[in-house]
């Protein structure tokens, strides 16, 4: 199984508001940068979308180290997801899980891969995290200039 490093970040100007996401995929010496966004979204939606869009690029099952500054994504995928599914997509307060549509997509895309989620502190000098943040913010700029 190929090992791929993925780095992601999401950003929002206002929450909700215009948002962007950035991702870097690295396989050996090959690197690919991705970015996108939406005019009306939330920071958590952009964090999740960054991971979803990065996983969509992979054409075969991979061993992945996914580095993000989003505890929402890390905890959602490693601690909360199984419980939400078992409870019919209800959270601990028996309310519908926020962003269920994105969680379902992320869960489905993740099934064929072996993913190790790694959290890093945001805006703390982590090179790839800073680059993903710059990609996300640059996309926000293109949205608000239109």
Supply the key terms.
4 helices, single chain, 146 residues, globular, 42% helix, five-stranded mixed beta sheet, alpha/beta
Shape assignment:
globular
The low-confidence parts are none
Helix content: 40-55%
Strand proportion, as a percent range, falls in 25-35%
Strand order in the sheet with the most strands:
3-2-1-4-5
SSE pattern, N- to C-terminal? EEEHEHHEH
- Average pLDDT, all residues: 96
* DSSP strand count: 5
How would you classify the quaternary structure? single chain
Determine the structural class based on helices, strands and strand pairing: alpha/beta
The biggest beta sheet is recorded as: 5 strands, mixed
The CA-CA distance between the termini, in Å, is 43 Å
Helical stretch tally: 4
Rg, alpha carbons = 15 Å
């Amino acid at each position: 199984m190929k090992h791929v490093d993925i780095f992601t970040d999401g950003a929002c100007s206002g929450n909700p508001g215009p948002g962007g996401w950035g991702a870097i995929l690295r396989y050996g010496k090959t690197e690919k940068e991705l970015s996108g966004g939406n005019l009306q979204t939330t920071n958590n939606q952009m964090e999740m979308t960054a991971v979803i869009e990065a996983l969509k690029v992979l054409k075969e099952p991979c061993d992945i180290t996914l580095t993000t500054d989003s505890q929402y994504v890390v905890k959602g995928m490693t601690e909360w997801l199984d419980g939400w599914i078992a409870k019919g997509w209800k959270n601990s307060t028996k309310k519908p899980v926020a962003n269920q549509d994105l969680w379902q997509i992320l869960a489905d895309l993740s099934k064929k891969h072996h993913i190790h989620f790694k959290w890093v502190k945001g805006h703390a000098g982590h090179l790839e995290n800073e680059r993903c943040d710059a990609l996300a913010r640059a996309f926000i700029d293109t949205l608000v200039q239109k």
